[in-house]
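User: structure tokens for this one?
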Amino acid sequence: MAIETPESMKADLAAWNTGDGIDLESWISCVGNFSLAVGYLSVFCPQFVEFEGYILREGFQQSSLRGFEVSCAGDRKAVEAVMNHLHIADTHQYGCEDLSKDKVVLLGSKLREIYEARLQWQFPKRPCTVSFYQPEESDDLEAYEITFWQKAFEDSGGS
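Assistant:
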């Protein structure tokens, strides 16, 4: 199944090939580069690690974890959620000119699917909830975020 082209990109893609248009896969072969593709692996193919009963995105800072354990009063669900959160807008340079709601929603939705599948594959006996937060205030595109936590922490009140 092809990825649906966001409305905000349709006019640009339609202008290619002297107006005949171009699909997303062909477009990236024209404007993309391998360095970005490798960089995107950290977002679209994330590595997760188990640490002291937590499941965290690889590369976390232990000092941040300890700080959130204190500020979240030992609520392991809250700690995992904040440690694992990723603002969709932060995956690109600040002030990126083509940031739009339709792109953020599509990216967040697909990232949720990817994280769900990877976590299930890597930790089949430790199911997780993956959340894609979409604020009611549609103008705040930097507030859209994805995160996850273990379902076991929901059942235990977070501890």
